[in-house]
Each structure stands twice: as C-alpha cells, then as structure tokens.
Design goal:
Structural class: alpha+beta
Helix content: 10-25%
Number of helices: 5
Distance between the termini: 18 Å
Strand order of the largest sheet: 2-3-4-1-5-8-7-6
Radius of gyration: 18 Å
Amino acid sequence: MLGKFLEFSLHTPDIIESLGFYKLLGFRELEVRDTWPHKYAVVSDGDLCIGLHDLPPEDAPAVTFVHKQLAKQARSMTDHGFDFDTLRLDDDIFNELDFRCRDGHRVHMIEARTFSRPDEDEDDSLCGSFFEITLPVRDAMRAGRFWAPLAPEILRVREEPTTHMRFNAAGVSLGLSESIALNGPALCFRCDDKDAVWIALAQHGFEHKEFPGFEGAFMAVTAPEGTSLFLFDEDFLGELYEVEEVDEAPED
C-alpha cells in the first residue's frame, strides 16, 4: 500500500549545519533532483536515507515513501477511510499526498524518487548499523491497529520495560514505542565502535547524552535540527529483543 520507503524527511532550519553534522558522523551526501522548490539535501549510510528540507516545522518530520501509481493508490486509500492533509494529483504536477497517524506522525507519499540511489556497498556511519525509525505513541497496540493495513508484516512485539512494536513498513523498520524518554521521532543504531563516536563528538562539540533512559541506549546524539539518534550496544540489544517473533498483524 505504501510503495517503497524513500527517506526520513526532516524540517531543517540550517541545511548546511545539519548536512555537516551527518557528514562528520560518516553519512554521505547524495545527488538530489530539482523536484522541490525549497532547499533540499539527502544523506545516507547505505541503509537509511535522511532528507533535509527547508520547510515549515509542521511539514516534517515525515516517513516518506515512493508509489509509482500514486493517484490510483490514493483512490483506494480514500475508499478505505484514509483522510489526507495534502492531496496533489494531476497530470502536469508532481503528485504527492500526506496524512497523519493517530499519534500525529506524518506519512508522505510521492510518485517518484527525488535523489539518486545510495551505493549498496556503502559502509555504515560512525553510529553503526541503522535498525529502526522509532515513533513515540500513547498506546502501541492502538497505534499498531492503524499501521497494520499499511505495514502488515510485524517484526517484533515486546511488552517490557515498555510496549514496543516493530513493523516492516515498505522496506524500513518502523518502531512504535510508549517510552516517555522519547520527545519525537528518533533514529536507532547498533553501534560497535563507541570510541569512534565519542572522539567525533568531542572534536566537534556535538550535543549528546550518555545513558539517556531509552530502552538501554548508551548514548543519544542530538542533530542540529533536533533529531535524536540513539546508539545501542550490539550485545545488549540482542538480549533486549530476545522475544518471540509475531507473524500476524493485530486485529482491530
């Protein structure tokens, strides 16, 4: 239904500052197309693409997907009760739509890619291996019922220390968490080189917090635009998610 994951889109007041932050952490800048009228840049670690947009705060962050038959898909979603905040569909414009989940998180769908594909052989950033975009939710099971038709493949469900559900959302792992440590959508990584991260942060004065209280992460790094990047120890993360896999989506 969603198509294919494209990018995690961020409202970025100072694109140059945010771009420098991600590049210093080992992300690579990708070539963008002239799709958008606003300033725009994209960085990637080979798995995750982050779109940096000079847009009003209410337009981002968003989880953005590409769907080649967007007009047809929009009609199908309307028939299934979806309400759109934005709906731009016509033959002579770039087609896009967006809507919000029950917790207010924005989902953006567009008809074509807006940047070149990342190199599949590209190495991870200093943050390590990306494994999840995490959305804070009030009730994970209720939120899961909203996401189930959009992303029917559930990867994990965990009830302790807080309820956490993880879906495969058209090619990206999307987590729903009730943790009070989250103040907005976040990016999560498995990090196996803590020293490299600490050295980079110390050299450039990036804001970070050790042991931030989110599900055992050993560090939270704050990007210039305010995005939280949580870093997890590989061994600890394996123990944390040593739970039964779930094959079926939650029933409404």
